[in-house]
Amino acid sequence: MTAPSVSNGTTRSLIWFRKALRVHDNPALAAGIARAKSAQPVFVLDPWFCKPSRVGANRMRFLLQSLRDLDATLRERGSSLLVLHGEPRVVLPRACKTWKVDLVTWEHDIEPYAKMRDTAVRGALERAGVECASSSGHTLYDVEEMLAKCHGKPPTTYSQFLKIVDKMGAPAAALDAPKAMPAPFTGTAEETKELVAGVADAYGIPTLEELGYEAMHDDEGFQAIGGETEGLRRLRRQLSRTEWVHTFQKPDTNPTTLFHALGAKKPKPKSPFEIAARDAGSKNDATNTAANSDMLMTPSTTALSPYMKFGCVSPRVFYHELNAVLAKFEGKGQPSQPPVSLMGQLMWREFYYLVGAGTPNFDKMEGNPICRQIPWNKDRELFAAWENAQTGFPWIDAAMTQLRLEGWIHHLARHAVACFLTRGDLFVHWEWGRDTFDRDLVDADWALNNGNWMWLSCSCFFYQYFRVYGPHSFAKKYDKDGAYVKHYLPVLKNMPAKYVYEPWLAPLDVQKKAGCVVGVDYPAPIVDHATASKACIDKIATAYAAHKDATAVAGKKRKAGE
DNA sequence: ACTTTGTTGGTGTT
DNA sequence: AACACCAACAAAGT
């Protein structure tokens, strides 16, 4: 597709970046500059989300890095990013008045807060005579078009969803990045200073500390650098592993792959994501043995999710470049297929966006028509033990520690801790766990997060509640020696492999010798797994039976009414 | 009414 | 590594 270019237009446009922190394949950006004489890209740091209780430090750091990268990329094109601070419904109309803006463009967003915010902003701007234009870009397809294809009622199974995808045809081609930008119109106005007040940076990009976060050191937390530049680099490096791309099967990937503690021989890797790129050609990783220690260096997944969440990488670019790689393999054996293939992963994202957009109260149990009504408890003590990595189950606590420290855990680790909190052991409400993930994950994405929590709690999409992840057995098949657990829970580092996943079974003298006495140095398990999971299964069975009765009654009523 | 399918369970046997 | 068995779900297709 041809690149949008600087035109001889007359419009003063404001391009409002929210997600889509990129210049490539950005329809809102293209619309903003199409007939512009001048254009100003802006991002609004909204106090609604700019706080540690809503967005954890890892994700906030990633966002700020992405903004700096976007600013640099825009500067290369003769523009720059201005970051405004305040409520969008207040700040944007004020900015438009100050700079006599004619047109504001942005990308559609389906999240409830975003929808409310955008409606308010649009109302205020249109009342002031400013034209508003929004376009689709965060998903492969326009969500509204997909909703039309399923008559407003999204499927709750992946196979039905693929039929919708089939009807949609291939996603549109990606737009190129503009080679040059219209002149920005801030920086000359004194008012700019007022709008970015309180921030040292003249263009308003704050530091973590300025936002009230504790400073993070370079070797802490999520290490992948946010932004379009790095996102595209990582996408292409991943796609260059053609054999791996061809055979990728998500369920075969390893949630305990250790990226940090690989011993003195190899340089200490900075993060899962630093390693992601490092090795081309290795297959899905297997178990933790010396023979395949190189595979250990390979994260099992692409680690691109944070870049997708913020729109640093366009899903359509991902799709088309992935397709190009797959095309080269035609005739060289069956490639993996959705739902487990890489393309399948992209489609899961699309699936959850569709269901999330088309389901009322998608992020709640009550009032959510696709969500099973289950009498979850709201036990603060159990929940706190889970969230603070104090359950006494090393695999669960290690994963929760990695989440807290790094803002990222493998998909299957997310399964394990989500199952444990909800239907597997603690029977705590999935909405509580959802909130923790929403705050702490670098890649937290409303539609995907809520969808996955419903999946794991057997509230929707998945219903085999008797299949429970063992909190002391699941990780063992990937990591027999417990290297992952020992890395994140150093208190267990001298525990013999035999007891790493179940330290309470170790004889007291073994615990003492390892320097880890259960109940003193490390918590005793908060529940007996066998008893707890049985109780959970019973409760869900009861709830399911009630649901069945209710649907049967509703069906009869409907019949009688006709 | 019945069968098949469903991204990613655990345990035990060969 | 592959398979049966556990106990048995929902949704879609026949």
From TrEMBL:
CC cofactor note: Binds 1 FAD per subunit.
**Residues with site note (Electron transfer via tryptophanyl radical):** 376, 430, 453
Instruction: Supply the alphabetized keyword list.
Output: FAD, Flavoprotein
Name any GO cellular component annotation: mitochondrion
The positions annotated for binding FAD are 301-305, 345-352, 443-445
Q: Which PROSITE patterns match?
A: PHR_CRY_ALPHA_BETA (PS51645)
Q: Name one Pfam family in it.
A: FAD_binding_7
Q: Kindly list any coiled-coil regions of this protein.
A: none
- Chain ranges of the Photolyase/cryptochrome alpha/beta domain: 11-140
Q: Name one GO molecular function term.
A: FAD binding
Tell me which cofactor or cofactors this protein depends on: FAD
UniProt keyword Nucleus present? no
Metal-binding: present as a keyword of the record? no
Q: Which GO terms describe its biological process?
A: circadian regulation of gene expression; entrainment of circadian clock by photoperiod; pyrimidine dimer repair; response to UV
Return the similarity comment: Belongs to the DNA photolyase class-1 family.
Query: What protein is this chain from?
Result: Photolyase/cryptochrome alpha/beta domain-containing protein
Q: What is the lineage of its organism?
A: Eukaryota, Viridiplantae, Chlorophyta, Mamiellophyceae, Mamiellales
